[in-house]
Amino acid sequence: xxxxxxEAVIKRLPAYYRHLKxxxxxxxxxxxxxxxxxxxxxxxxxxxxxxxxxxxFGRQGYGYSVSELREHIGHIMGVxxxxxxxxxxxxxxxxxxxLADSFPQNGFVTAAIFDSDPHKIGMQVDAMAVQDxxxxxxxxxxxxxxxxxxxxxxxxAQQLAHEVYDYGIRGFWNFAPLxxxxxxxxxxxxxxxDEGLEVLSFRxxxxxx
Amino acid sequence: xxxxxxEAVIKRLPAYYRHLKxxxxxxxxxxxxxxxxxxxxxxxxxxxxxxxxxxxFGRQGYGYSVSELREHIGHIMGVxxxxxxxxxxxxxxxxxxxLADSFPQNGFVTAAIFDSDPHKIGMQVDAMAVQDxxxxxxxxxxxxxxxxxxxxxxxxAQQLAHEVYDYGIRGFWNFAPLxxxxxxxxxxxxxxxDEGLEVLSFRxxxxxx
Lengths: 209, 209
What we know:
Rossmann fold, about 210 residues, alpha/beta, 9 helices, Arc Repressor Mutant, subunit A, globular, homodimer
């Protein structure tokens, strides 16, 4: 099992996983830290350091087994288990998440989608009908769900996050532009799209031609 | 003007900007580094360091003017200018970006949306009809556009990014799961949604109850 993994390495794990999946698809079975580094724009020593950090794989002068390393990283990230998500908010973002193919392909399955807007309740999104948010508690009690996708206005995101936390959900994928305050055992990943555009604007303004 | 700003500070700028906008909306005109830090879960000294880093605002014992600091950060990020975006790909993500209210409210206006799929060309997305990707070059030549939103399959994202770079676009907001290779004067921000879910899965697996 992995020991302490720094925040920076955690954020690089999905990129390793993606490149290793691509290599597998290309039929590559072994790769050196140098080869993996070139592919990912990292130095060989950075790759060795990162990989040592979660378990010391590979043998000197031999490199890594692509499939073993991919499986190992997948297991550390827990993406070899299925996750069941509920989407709170059936607006543009909520519907786009519900309709995307890649999430279920990677084991993140949308089980239900909720909204409070009477115009949206009952609306069909893929094979699901949008459910009344008033049914949320009952639904979570009766169904195994581990991730709540917050695709809500900022005005109600915090309160609903607390509610679903109280119902036992511990994973939060938050698209609302706020810093959620939740107890320490809640896992939160924020997707602040507006902030990404602001960073892009900064980079455009300050890039050297 | 700002001197060198580290990557870590750049990524915090939007959060400062958001909190300062909220403070303005709440009618707060002055705030200390301690007050701002408490609000953002930073220490006062971190706030002072960050803000010094882009220009040395505020007076000892007096704090910051909320509106001046907000304007200053907005100017550094270039979000006081309008940006015109084209969306490449009229799938779920492309349409969600086109339909979101918050981007134009923040000065990021979608000018056009393109796809290569004959079933999507001509489809109405908000007030825009999806245009044939074959019209892309002509469109960019005739219209001022500075950001391309890549909401495309991984198989064609790299090639299209190169094309629009050649047409003169330098800002790329990339939703495709790959590392774009573009010349150094291109500004790229990636939104790797799948990777965000993998990081969430990691945190759920390793969080201490």
